[in-house]
Amino acid sequence: xxxxxxxxxxxxxxxxxxxxxxxxxxxxxxxxxxxxxxxxxxxxxxxxxxxxxxxxxxxxxxxxxxxxxxxxxxxxxxxxxxxxxxxxxxxxxxxxxxxxxxxxxxxxxxxxxxxxxxxxxxxxxxxxxxxxxxxxxxxxxxxxxxxxxxxxxxxxxxxxxxxxxxxxxxxxxxxxxxxxxxxxxxxxxxxxxxxxxxxxxxxxxxxxxxxxxxxxxxxxxxxxxxxxxxxxxxxxxxxxxxxxxxxxxxxxxxxxxxxxxxxxxxxxxxxxxxxxxxxxxxxxxxxxxxxxxxxxxxxxxxxxxxxxxxxxxxxxxxxxxxxxxxxxxxxxxxxxxxxxxxxxxxxxxxxxxxxxxxxxxxxxxxxxxxxxxxxxxxxxxxxxxxxxxxxxxxxxxxxxxxxxxxxxxxxxxxxxxxxxxxxxxxxxxxxxxxxxxxxxxxxxxxxxxxxxxxxxxxxxxxxxxxxxxxxxxxxxxxxxxxxxxxxxxxxxxxxxxxxxxxxxxxxxxxxxxxxxxxxxxxxxxxxxxxxxxxxxxxxxxxxxxxxxxxxxxxxxxxxxxx
Length: 562
Description:
Layout: H1 2-32, H2 34-42, H3 47-61, H4 64-77, H5 82-95, H6 97-107, H7 112-127, H8 132-157, H9 160-172, H10 178-195, H11 198-210, H12 215-228, H13 230-237, H14 242-264, H15 266-279, H16 292-314, H17 318-328, H18 351-381, H19 385-417, H20 423-458, H21 465-491, H22 500-525, H23 531-559
Helix pairs in contact: 1-8, 3-5, 4-5, 4-13, 4-14, 5-14, 5-16, 5-17, 6-11, 6-16, 7-8, 10-11, 10-12, 11-12, 12-14, 12-16, 13-14, 14-16, 14-17, 15-16, 18-19, 18-20, 18-21, 19-20, 20-23, 21-22, 21-23, 22-23
């Protein structure tokens, strides 16, 4: 009964610790707001900056998992390349060692719980303010205090007799030599996978080391934690695109490789750790008579030296890691995502040349949108549920691509706009901003088209042959609009004389929409089809009319440059 009660107390204390860490991390991200994401997206121009970015963010939010998940989401959105993401993840692994030092230096001091309680009161008072930022700061302070309160409770929740038996059991494995090290690596991996937090496993490891666990076995537990922590990112990436899955795989490769070479050089590695610890005036952790504080600091040093040295070894092989994970997860051609075709690197030597590059990329953007609507037509006409699901995901994928293209071109145009521009070039840039915004809206409408059809399928509604024929006619008008828009984009402001072609198509789309709307009202009166079917039918017609509006806006933006 005592054992069961002790286990419940331990799990409850761990839950409190994890809750505090999550609360602190989430609210710090709220306080930082978009600045944190902007920092992550911008500071990736070279290997050093990538590592520094990952280190800084993880040291602040105290969660390498949160940083890695953020990186995976950025790769999934196309805002970071695979090589950039691997560099940031390397830095995140170094940043997560800060928590081990915090726990070692202050986490097992008797007064930490006494300090934590007043901090909770301070944080609670801040949460009572109307300001969202102050509320978030208050919650962050409370999370920090709860994390250390939970750590203190973890230490006190375990029955000393049980802790002593556990310590003796693990220390007893030392008779098996190196097999005991491998067993501890496995245990550290499993515990981290179960808790979904390397910080929580680190806290448990430090608690056992504080109570006499053999240093060599404690270090092996730390190695296992570095393997187990990669699972979170891989779970998150399992539903993302191929690039995000590769980023998560790169994280796993980084940690697995590090654990492998450290195990091969295990005793020399621990000897180096002991020399570093002794150099700062602490006891030799390998002596068997070191103080608990020396052991705690030595465990934190193992974690730090592992990640720093592993990064130093692998940072020069980032491109090879990219090639390895690409071969490991080859993916399908459509999974590769979009890559800019004309904009390579920064702006060219003159604004005019740079804007020609941007024009080429915008024309490619238009072609991507056209491809999406080819899938939309297939989605409309298919009766195979599996084929529909495949096409629906393609529409969703293309919508994500259009978001990325808009971001990349806008970023490029922002760089160009910082130069001394002629009045004409300034107008061109403003027009291009409007064009890419409208193209992105066309991409959104393409996905909306698929979502309307998905809702129709979920509710068991179906279009008859007449309705399908009229929807296909409307889509043909959309493609005529694409032709006119592409023609005007190719001509550009210096050759275009009028946009009658685009205006004619827009007028045809509007007139056809009005005609179908009147006809729809009559059909409802005559019960030609159900009301729900009619709703989805008109939603698609209206979505097409919106696309026509976006298209005419693009042609107007081009001719207005003059």
